[in-house]
Amino acid sequence: MPTWDPNQYLKFTDHRLRPALDLLAQIPLADPRSVYDLGCGPGNITRLLAERWPNARVVGIDSSADMLAKARMEAASVAFEQADIAHWSPPAPADLLFTNATLHWLDDHAALLPRLAAQLAPGGVLAIQMPDNRTSPSHLLMDDAAATGPWHTKLARLRPVYGAMQSPDAYYRMLAPVTRQLDIWETTYLHVLEGDNPVVEWTKGTALRPYLDALDDPERGAFLAVYATRIAAAYPKQPDGRTLLPFRRIFIVART
Ligand SMILES: C[S@@+](CC[C@H](N)C(=O)[O-])C[C@H]1O[C@@H](n2cnc3c(N)ncnc32)[C@H](O)[C@@H]1O
Questions:
Q1: CB-based contact 131:100 (threshold 8 Å)
Q2: Ligand 1 pocket, mutate which of 63, 116, 202, 213 (most atoms under 8 A from CB)
Q3: Which residue has its alpha carbon closest to ligand 1 atom 20?
Q4: Cα separation of 99 and 1, whole Å?
Q5: Contact status, residue 186 vs residue 250, Cβ threshold 8 Å
Q6: Which of 26, 56, 97, 129 has its CA 20 to 30 A from that of 234?
Q7: What is the pLDDT of residue 240?
Q8: Which residues of the chain have pLDDT under 70?
């Protein structure tokens, strides 16, 4: 499991918030009593869940102590618990399991997603958003940079960043047998980023973390320099000085 740095992750708060809001807007629940935010991270979205459903008991679950420390400062009214989603179950059937930008870090979705759906109360909702950039330069160039330096053997052992991701129809087949309503869609956001080589700053907060964790300085810095050079060429600045990052995400709203 990679280490997480809440401050690096929060550098792109507005861009990262938008898909969470798009997911939240599709949840057909008026008054859920038990709401869990799985992989709650720094807690800013958990706080929005608590604000939308003030009568609910909202609990944020995350495996990272650093993220949970940040979350406890962000949303004082919410309970936060440290756990690995792969082995986690709610104490009683839940009305809402919400999980934004997290499940792509976990393996074996064919077992995991039906297992989570089975933890829902009747009429409960499993709401999922996951990035899927298997074919994007931002992520392909990580493996490219990993393969071309003395760090090659250390990085060859890493789990592929999007190794668990499946196609929308595969998620349909996983969840249709265990749910009554199923809504699945994909969106590609065009993020307009400011600053110098901002795509590197973006991935440093998420997908690049396992690569950086696996190396020590000065190798880490040298790897990052190779990756950054390739990213700058793949994501050139626009005439207005900004950089465009197309970013595909899959959404699932499943109701029992
Ligand atoms: C990209 S962040 C998303 C945070 C938040 N949901 C958001 O949308 O801003 C992914 C989070 O998932 C957590 N995470 C990854 N694997 C996990 C696991 N197996 N169990 C619990 N949390 C996990 C990480 O610690 C991290 O906080």
A1: no
A2: 63
A3: 84
A4: 17
A5: yes
A6: 129
A7: 97
A8: 9
- This prediction has a pTM of 0.93
DSSP string for residues in 26-64: T---SS-SEEEEET-TTSHHHHHHHHH-TTSEEEEEES-
Q: How is residue 163 written in tokens? A: 């190794």
> Separation of 8 CA from ligand 1 center, angstroms?
14
**CATH of the domain spanning 6-255:** 3.40.50.150
Per-residue model confidence (pLDDT) at position 162: 81
CA gyration radius, the chain: 19
Cβ-based burial of 97 (10 A; exposed 0-12, middle 13-18, buried ≥19): buried
The pLDDT value given to residue 8 = 73
Q: How far apart are CA 12 and CA 205, in angstroms?
A: 9
Distance CA 220, CA 225 (A): 9
Residue 101 in 3-state DSSP? coil
Q: Write down the pLDDT at residue 9.
A: 65
Residues 6+ apart with CB under 8 A from 14: none
Whether 206 lines ligand 1, by a CB cut-off of 6 Å, is yes
- What's at 36, amino acid-wise? Y
Q: Where are the domains of the chain?
A: 6-255
- What is the position in ligand 1's atom list of the atom closest to the CA of 88? 20
The confidence score (pLDDT) of residue 6 equals 73
Residues paired with 183 in a beta bridge: 253
Concatenated DSSP letters of 168-222 = HHHHHHHHGGG-SEEEEEEEEEEEEE-SSSHHHHHHHTTTTHHHHHH--TTHHHH
Give the per-residue pLDDT at 127: 98
Residue nearest atom 4 of ligand 1, based on CA coordinates: 41
